[in-house]
Structure of Opticin:
Amino acid sequence: MKLLALLSLLALMLAQEARTASLPKTERETEGDQPHGEGDSYAVLQLGDYVLSLDDYDQVIDLSNYDELTDYREQLPKVKGTSLASPTRTSFTQSTRAPRTSPSNPTMARPTTRGLLVSLTSHGLPTCLICVCLGSSVYCDDADLENVPPLPQTTAYLYARFNRTSHIRAGDFKGLTKLKRIDLSSNFISSIDDDALLLLPALQDLILPENKLAALPVLPTGIEVLDIRLNQLQSSGIQPEAFRALEKLQFLYLADNLLDSIPRSLPLSLRSLHLQNNMIETMQRDTFCDAERPKHTRRQLEDIRLDGNPINLNLFPSAYFCLPRLPTGRFT
């Protein structure tokens, strides 16, 4: 039994010697001089037959050639330096545009109608700022005018319908020697000065329907068309010789008024006479024809309307003998 234990101890000793003999000299010296502690695990790295020591690290990486390495910073693109500060935000209320200023020329601003007619009369053509001027025609329809506006001296045709004009003054058409047509339909005209139209030598058409006229003014002798329908015209407002001097008058429209008699002294140039829807009850024998000239005829007067009146045309047969046609109206 003792012999068996002795043999085992001898075998262990031989095995230890064999292991020690197989190690390199340096490791044997280290192992013999210094015991291995737990904190020295990184001092020696055993990689099979190759042992890497921290003392030999400079042999693995040659730091002397580090300057030969490529400097990649030289290959980077050059970028121009810009400010990274955020741009200042402009307030919406503080516009970068220059502030608007009112025009320095007062005539270019849009003035009121009253200002145009009063303060700018001496500046040329003020009416053309509120009306439409096309050649010799002036259109002031529906412009809310209370008076006839100042007109260019070359005006030949005036259209100022659908306004609030109530009176025609003596100087409204002063100096307008080329004025041929005046159309003031659908206003509130109740009176016209006698001198307002008398000094218009070129006037041919006077159009005044849908107003409030009760009397006729003095008319220029060259007038050809007179339209005063839908007014408040009375027979007392027409002078007995009002139409005698109108030797060029061709169309006389007096319908829808308050007339109780047919106007006298109608010119021979007359072609159309409209008197419908009045209060005419009678007529004179010589209203249309001259009784002293039985063979005289009025061939031009072909259109006479008396319908809508209380008159019985059958009671006045001798009043039509010179006419090419009988008047339109009631014969019963």
User: Anything to note?
Assistant: The longest helix spans residues 2-22.
